[in-house]
Here is the input.
Amino acid sequence: MKAKIIITPKKAVFDPQGKTVENALEHMGYTGVEGVHVGKYIEIDLADGDKEEVRKKIDEAAHKFLSNPVIEDYQLEIE
Here is the structure.
């Protein structure tokens, strides 16, 4: 199994990396970009097991360790 976690800044939190990318795109001539959010992508290879139990454990790890729930949101997918 594989866990895929995408972590992004919350919409209300200022994202300096995203703003830098947005400005760079504008200076390169890309128009119409109204916002960029830079985040993290994490893949975790897992031993086979009960998918719901694995989801519960990885969700807990994502919430407590892999992300900062005060300023970040995350999406979790188990394959």
Q: What stands out?
A: The CA atoms of residues 31 and 39 lie 22 Å apart. The chain has one domain: 2-78.
